[in-house]
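Teaching note: in complex prediction, the entire set of molecules is handled at once rather than each chain in isolation. The prompt given to students was simply: 'Predict the structure of this complex.' The entities are:
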Amino acid sequence: MTTTVPDAALEVLQRVFGYDAFRGDQARVVAHVVAGGDALVLMPTGAGKSLCYQVPSLVRGGTGVVVSPLIALMQDQVDALTALGVRAGFLNSTQDPDQRRAVEQAYLAGELDLLYLAPERLRVASTVRLLERGRIALFAIDEAHCVAQWGHDFRPDYLLLSELHERWPDVPRLALTATATPETHAEIAQRLDLGDALHVVASFDRPNIQYRIAPKDEPRKQLLQLLRDEHPGEAGIVYCLSRKSVEQTAAWLAAQGVAALPYHAGLDAPVRQRHQARFLREDGLVMVATIAFGMGIDKPDVRFVAHLDLPKSVEGYYQETGRAGRDGLPSTAWLAYGLADVVQQRKMIDESEGDLAHRRRLTQHLDAMLALCETVACRRVQLLAYFGQESEACGNCDTCLVPPETWDGTVAAQKVLSTVYRLDRERGQRFGAGQVVDVLLGKRTPKVAQSRHDELSVFGIGGELSEGEWRGVVRQLLAQGLLAVTGSYQVLALTEASRPVLAGEQQVRLRKDPVRSARTRSRSSSAPADLPPGAAPVFERLRAWRAAAASEQGVPAYVVFHDATLREIATTLPATTAELGRVSGIGEGKLARYGAGVLEVLAGAPPAATAGPAAAPAAAPAAAPAAAPAASPGPDPEEDWHEQEPPDEDG
Ligand code: ADP
Ligand code: ZN
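The expected output is the structure of the full assembly:
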């Protein structure tokens, strides 16, 4: 299918954004919305959803109203647009009345191309009246999955958005999300009344992200190895389940010399805000966080996302890992996963509040996540299948790169199950996985001796496997539903499905856990070292210039230029303004603002001289001033509203 994009849209893309052509499905969406149609757009992170509403907003005349839950990031979004020469503003609770009035005036005077709003603003009658008095080009509903209760991020205020259509029947609406199970998709369409809209479901593949799931051994050391060997000095996110482990991990990494900061909903709002701002502005920081961090973080050069605990759903996992590599350069998604994770998650579901249907939904989400962890096939094929998309083995995930072996684990499974059965018959005391493994190995621990488990017939029948291997067997039996966790003491118990295995009627295939440290890539090829000879020093000089320019303006470095743009400049060495303007990512706004500075750097001028009198020491980009607090003058009443994280757990 060929799409004719209106000339005006292509002109805006090239002149304002500096890109040659629309990517993938962008053209289809832009053409449809420019013509006044509604659209529901499901594209993975990094695919370029923003242009789908930014370009039509500029083409259609009037203001594009963007509804987004991410008020903490609105300032950055507006800064990025301003750097392109686009007239943008936002209205949220971080502003004082004067700032708000200025934005309102600009809107009414027709001087705003884009206006960002939090959804709860639409509950306020004065906002609605304001919008009615101006000219609206379109409504863009960002993070549209927040309207879906099935998903992992439901926000009640999103339900208000169904009224947009009734109030402004002629204004096109565009709902966008990076979450796309068929269930979520259907729910968005239904709740936002987008049944007749153009539905665009892009491929959810993120080929530049290398997916890896490792058996958890010594998770912090494994993490440190990943950071040191593959991503030294690069920006990344480390997700932990609990606030406590966030703080401990961040402190531990800092003690190892890694620039790391904690982030969770229990920290004071100003601290959170400062850490987030530093992560966005400085080069190469590691953010250790709960899932309260990350939605809407559009930092393009996040080189890795690591999970030290098992995510609760594939949807959440894909969303979180999707924050890596928005710039399309090679990135890593790494997850460490072990027996304790399965036990803990099963137990949390068991104890969770809510009805049976809710618990069943949690169990389905977890089972899909476990299946992904235990698969011997391509991780990406399995991930995409979860989103209803077929694909071929990718060649860029751990199971493709080092195919895991499987083995007939029937006898091992029977040994575990009979041990669980025997321990389960002991009255009074209850035993978890540790005791099962000790009994199998014939270890006379005090606990074994005291409970006289050394007298059981199963004592010591498991000498053929190591402790780690037995834990792997137990973990896989739990993942496959052949074992269950019951009660609050993480006791193992048989399930209905255990019987045929014990009776020898069913085979069990198990995955052989790969040996630790089987590394699949030595360095990320986004590194300067991978540039052609001669280009690396130029790239470094450009980076230093960029850090100075960004800190002078109080914006993140990527608002000035993305790495990909600097790489292209360093490789092609444009000599004139016209040549520089042809580099991807340089439109007329950036050319006017930064062109001379870049050409001076290329001509060999010392970088500090090009960034004006307020320049920071150019050689030390990591020392850019912490947290320009401009984006958030104080505690924000809306802030907690968009944070959801699990209750604190001792990991
Ligand atoms: P999403 O919101 O879908 O995660 P973004 O809108 O942030 O993605 O875009 C991801 C990156 O791709 C950005 O750096 C953006 O500038 C770039 N990009 C988007 N569309 C194009 C295009 N047509 N050509 C080149 N780069 C693009
Ligand atoms: Zn693969």
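Point out the following to students. The chain has 26 helices and 17 strands. The pocket of zinc ion (ligand 2) is lined by residues 378-380, 393-394, 397, 399-400 (CB under 6 Å).
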